[in-house]
Amino acid sequence: MAITSMTSFVFSMVLGFFSIAAASARGPIIGVFAHPSSHYGEYIAASYVKWVESAGGRVVPIPYNAPKPYLEQLLPQLNGLLFPGGAATVNDRAE
Predict the structure, then answer these.
(1) pTM
(2) What is the rounded (10 degree) CA torsion for 55, 59, 64, 68?
């Protein structure tokens, strides 16, 4: 039996649907930037990892000194980024 182009198209659409459904079932992939540390080289606070995972996401650590080619390959594969930090003054309007 010959496979028609319509059958091939439908089969491709079904596979694509299941691929998307499986990806969304695993949750978003969130990159978290690491901080430099004199004791550990670099680290990510456990609270950030727990927070992302509690929302159903998966954490991918991003080294603080990652080379540009590494980032260019990694970033398109992520669904979001978490920029850890605090104690920053942020203006809510331009002056």
Answers:
(1) 0.63
(2) -120
